[in-house]
Amino acid sequence: MNPIAPTQRKTAVVIGHGMVGHRFVEALRSRDEAGQWQVVILSEEKLPAYDRVGLSYYVGNWNPDELALPGNTYAGDDLVDLRLGQRGAAIDRAAKTVTSSTGEVIGYDALVMATGSYAFVPPVPGHDLPECFVYRTIEDLDGIRAAAEAAGPGAHGVVIGGGLLGLEAANALRLMGMTPHVIEYNDRLMPAQVDAGGGAILEKLVSDIGLNVHTGVGTAKIVSLEEDGPNQVTLHLSDESEIKASLVVFSAGIRPHDQLAKDAGIETGARGGILTDLGLRTSDPDIYAIGECAAVEGVCYGLVAPGYTTAEIVADRLLGGAGEFPGADMSTKLKLMGVDVASFGDAHATTEGALSVVLHDAAKGTYAKLVVSDDAETLLGGILVGDASAYSALRPLVGRPLPADPATLISPAGAELGADALPDDAQICSCNNVSKGSICGAIAEGACDIPAVKSCTNAGTSCGGCVPMIKKLLEQSGVTMSKALCEHFGQSRAELFDIVNVTGIRTFSELIAKHGKGTGCDICKPTVASILASTSSDHILEGEQAALQDTNDHFLANLQKNGTYSVVPRMPGGEVTAEQLIVIGEVAKEFGLYVKVTGGQRIDLFGARVEQLPLIWKRLVDAGMESGHAYGKSLRTVKSCVGSTWCRYGQQDSVGMAVLLEKRYRGLRSPHKIKLAVSGCARECAEARGKDVGVIATEHGWNLYVGGNGGLTPKHAVLLAGELDDETLIRYIDRYLMFYVRTADRLQRTAPWQEALEGGMDYLKAVVCDDSLGIAGDLEAAMDKHVEGYKDEWAAVLEDENKLSRFVSFVNAPDEADPTISFDDSGERKVPVLLGLPQVGAGVGSDTAAAGK
Q1: What would the mean pLDDT of 456-480 be, rounded to a whole number?
Q2: Which of 382, 675, 775, 811 is buried deepest, with most CB atoms within 10 A?
């Protein structure tokens, strides 16, 4: 096609440079082969288009380049003029010009409104205090970050709004080291996406991992507490309770940015938004609206997928096409702190005659609902909470015949819905409208991994919810999948372990500079921190390493739901002296702590404020006790029965062996927590076969079992070797644990790790018992090095003023206690009070429960 002469080109002015505005420019420029249009973009933000859906990933690395959309500066494209920091200030429809905020007047042939939306802030008295923020842009997050740092670790932050963005904002506060609260006026979280049953499960899951949830209440007013120092406010709720906090984030919904259009006399919808027809044309035929600001036949769509569709349609229209908006897939999927939530299709069963099939498993923390037609033949929608692994397979089937009985599709023992069950025209990526057939075609033409499929089809480049299905399609095509840890490291965890072990690299920054890219994320940072701890005796709070840790490791204690911490001293094999018990009792009494014996034969002290932790541990360390590592991905406990020393059935000294093993493996950092047990006979009073490593005494020695796990999918340990003497037993455990530490994936328990080994238990036995790989000596030497270099983490903190300085409630007032922490002592048990809302049994749990914090 012959290029258009510069004098014949038309000008398209785009107001707004968010994700949808950028998609429009990309679509227009990629299709306009003749160069009919030149584009001028006015962007109010100073940063070019970035991934607003992934805004929470900005927290932690604080590098805006990580969110930048590909090609967002249009480098080398002379037909695109991007003007950052310039907003559209006025539109003259008669003259067909736009006046920018700098006073420049720009003529247009077509004007595309991509102004997006803004965060709605309800007119609550006090909403304009300096401690109040919204969660919408990178600049917003920078402001929240500054306030969080000024408030100090553990300070309370409140999010008003418990929808999708509200939970994202609360998670961001958690990642900043704050104690997050969520206030939701409705009776459940994410009311637009989940029903009452799913909401109940969701609330429990997010509460268990650190969010303080207040549903069914509104905010009456926000009052500044100047007498308590800067960054302190009190929220007065509609139920007359109060929350004291250092900052407030409003996430109560969004409103379309339509004021500029209104001022120009362009028609707007009854509920806001720039009114358009199905071709996205406004009441002015030369002006279009796309994305969140557009009210397509009166309806605004707040998700990126329909926004992209509107952008594509307008690009098509400017080049002579006649595309129309086909409607929108409002499916959503959220993974928050490890909690899966998905909602798709007619999730609330509003279709006439719709039937619901529900599987509600409160014990496992999962909720699944499928909405089907009145004849149970067609899938209409669904809700998944706790386990959304079926989302990528089910969502494309909405409106299609079900391949199996609906109950079996959500039952753990039911039918597995594979990629082959989907027709070629099934939409896999709703954000970019990519079908299964398009993805399979790209794979057939040589796209052999997920990045290649993304590049060829755009599938998976937005929210990422379709990536699991893309993986299935690749596997179905016989493609070997990448085991990359994350987008910053192309290597697996095991490969990174080998790199660190061989090169001697001791910092994350050096490792990512030499073997990765970018600045890291919440996946690779703690993973590398664990690898560095597994390969050295350096303290985890030493230098750069401290910044990689999650909240529990950051303070060497388990964070509880009211912002306090629990203290668990180590008791090898469950043994403790009378003097140590006395000290524990004195500490509990002096600091007002709740005391509970755990399932791992230890004592847990609950309710310590962050600044009290060093004082408590000073007393315990002086009494000869040390950290029990209940907060870390490391050895937790070695449980034991009394064995032959006391029991008439005991065949070996189980307590002595348990103490020996616990002291040997204490402090061993690993991909996941590790638990051991030693039983003195086959009666199994220590429940050894439910542990990662279980030892059971026999008349002639010890039987060694491996790979037992509790949790959602319990596994019995499998016999690795029998009738072992003490020396051989320890040698085999050394090899097994170090082999696991070196080769397991991130957050992989021993049971799924050994099940995934090619060759299974036969292979594992050959490696551990027969030294088939010739690495037994190396594994044993690595464990010996760990044992020799072990030093109690809390004892090291008490000896270092720099490390001690982090244990304060408020950085700017290190001697002040957090005034928001309180307890209820009126009942039989001491329980935390969540800022006026007592929680029965709150914060209480065994070593297993604490591990989830």
Answers
A1: 76
A2: 382
